[in-house]
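Hello forum,

I keep getting stuck at the same step: I have a sequence, I want structure tokens, and every attempt I make locally crashes halfway through. Rather than fight my setup again tonight, could one of you with a working pipeline run this one for me? It's a single chain of 522 residues.
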Amino acid sequence: MAPGVRRILLAAMLASFAGALGADPQESFKKGVAALDLEKWGEASEHLRAAVRENPRESADRVFLSGVFSRPYLPHFYLGWALYQGGLENCRDVLLALETSENQGVVQEFKRQYQNLGTARERCNEEVLPAAFEAASRELQNATRLAEQLAEPVADAELENDRSKALREIAAARQIVEASSDGARLSDLQAATRSAREAVELLEGVASQTSAAASQQLAVARAAARLEIEAAAEAERRLAELLADPERTPAWSGSDLVMPVDALARLDSARAGLEETADLAQVEQAQADARAAAASIARVRDRADEAYTRFVRDLQQKAERDASPKQPSVTPPPPVIRPILESESSAAPSVARQERLDEILRLRTLGSRLLGELGTEETNSELLETQKSRLTLLILEARERGSGDNSAGLEDLHSRLASSLAALQLVVGARAFLAGDMPRTVETLSNSPQVDDRLAAQAQLFLGAALHALYRAGGESDDEIVSRARAAVSACRELMPGQLPDARVFSPAFRAFFQAQAAQNR
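Reply #2:
Ran it on my machine without issues. Output:
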């Protein structure tokens, strides 16, 4: 017997003996190939899947089946071939198995097996790739559409990272889809589909959270615009009373001092701009209209003040002339004219008046400090710039007129100054919170005037959330910070009992903290 034949027979005998002892690690492969030879496609697939699990690495080493018959250890190839023979409905699994076999680089050494691989792959590509290409293209279109809607970078660093990652996933998917005409593989198209789907999930998350931030910004803008409209409406009412006052009418008789039509039109436009369906641009335009209306009314009021001052001065000069020696000794009675701003008594100001003056000074100081921190550089926020301008004008007015006003004038000045400061603090504090700057949020909102329940509740909500975040960042060990957070939450709920933290803006941990505090206060 030739030596080569003797070695083959010896190897077969040893293989049979090892199989009888149950110690052959390639038993599943043997059973799978045997079932494949008998055209038992399902049984062959099951055994070959087991062989892949036992040893997924293909090899050119021969595995003896029985006697002198052997096959190279190609479990992925034979699995793909068995699935292919079992029907074209298995083509997805066929392509993945054959692709794995080809990637390992062993099957190419065996001409017949590699030819069969090419045959099965070509046929299954015709069956599967069009649908896979369509699925990848569809997901890519969805992701691209969302990416176009979020083309601009977002302020939040974490959200911007998600947006950037999504853009990278889209680029990778597009590269595969565009190269598919040159013969894409199923696994590549599936990878493109997964990348596009992941991009969609990331972008939807970014869109949802930026939408929440935009909703919060819209709410702040509405509150600020509402204050502007109320201030303009109050100015309109006071001017109307002034122009209709019979004691003052002689001062501007014959003049063109009337309620400005443009102010009334702008005020109506501002009120219409606060409809529930209004977007941020419309609300900001409403605020601008209200501010323009107030400015127009103020100009007419200034002209009325000047006209009245001249009228009083002329009457006084006439009275002095009438009282000169050339005139009869009888002095005519002085005109009964009530000044627009009646002077206070020369005595020391009352305690209440002095307290109001001190409060106005405090608000002026807080406002000046906040404006100084913001600086003169313009931002991308028209709302922020608007609030800065309004507060600046009110601080200037307080410096010029504050100490000379009567009690009613001081109260009005204090109300407008406090409202403007609270609105700007809320805008700055909310922007700092959304940017992750919790210390700035706390610093800005800790001394916010409480002149409007809605603004004050929002300020306390952001303040409580920022304090809670600092408490957690510090290892939840600072009792003072958490006490302040609880106080802010309680104040928020007291001002607006129905207020709840928006899940799109505030963390789950803070929302749980808010609910727990609300339950304790019941």
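The longest strand covers residues 59-66. If your local run keeps crashing, start a new thread with the error log.
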